[in-house]
């Protein structure tokens, strides 16, 4: 097929020899199957921000560090330079997360680098060498659902131990090869310790997996792995070897709302009295 404009520089530099076909087009990128020497890989071409339908980038970017103060100021001001720099960080976040998670033992496509908005990575295939299907397109037996759900919980635990949360995990960004699930699409991965949305993002990710696998194995619907993992993480007790049960007893004690309001009112009265004393003292001086 004709080489897409964004991939042409990689062809010119010898990183890609041939574009074979388009694999898919999603909300943030278009993915192509390419030949690199003797290897068949995929090239993920990120869409420009104005053409991207992923609208909640700000809450995912929270906590990402920008070492260069000039770039940080430009991004805060929203200048053209700042938006370009923000796009580079958004794109590089995925390749950084892929390297980090691969090293942590999470099954993700092997990355080969990000070049001007084009991510080269492993093409995940099935047993016959064809592109692996998405989890959403695979029918599972109850037994396989339990096994694969267990793998996904293990990967979520490994990710959290590595300090990352996927942030947009669902059956549409998990591939299934002959060995089981492979996690994809990570440009929105968040820093678990620096993002204020980390807890509910983890819960949403894990609960999405529970709901999907639970349609094949209903017993999974009763599990509470997200809350269990986050509690262990906050207590600095989550490790790659800790045994997870899927059970979690939540604190059901209701807050003493009346007591809290009494404290607020008492504090307000004290402040009013303090201001009155100051005003009285000033009048005395006059």
Task: Estimate the global geometry from the Cα principal axes.
Answer: globular
Radius of gyration: 25 Å
Count of separate DSSP helical elements: 8
What distance lies between the first and last C-alpha atoms, to the nearest angstrom?
88 Å
Provide the β-strand percentage band. 15-25%
The largest sheet is: 5 strands, antiparallel
Structural class: alpha+beta
SSE ordering: HEEEHHHEEHEEEEHHH
Q: Count the strands?
A: 9
Helix share, percent: 40-55%
- Average pLDDT value? 85
Question: Can you tell me the residue ranges where pLDDT is under 50 for at least 5 consecutive residues?
Answer: none
Largest sheet strand order: 1-2-3-5-4
Structure description:
- It is a single chain.
- With 286 residues, the chain is of the alpha+beta class.
- The chain has a 5-stranded antiparallel sheet.
- The chain is 42% helix and 16% strand.
- It starts with 7 loop residues before the first helix and ends with a helix.
- Strand 4 (111-115) and strand 5 form a beta hairpin.
What descriptive keywords fit this protein?
globular; five-stranded antiparallel β-sheet; 9 strands; 286 residues
Record the SSE blueprint:
Elements: H1 8-12, E1 18-25, E2 29-36, E3 39-46, H2 57-61, H3 69-77, H4 80-104, E4 111-115, E5 118-122, H5 142-161, E6 164-165, E7 174-177, E8 180-183, E9 190-191, H6 198-214, H7 225-234, H8 257-285
Antiparallel strand pairs: 1-2, 2-3, 3-5, 4-5, 6-9, 7-8
Helix pairs in contact: 3-4, 5-6, 6-7
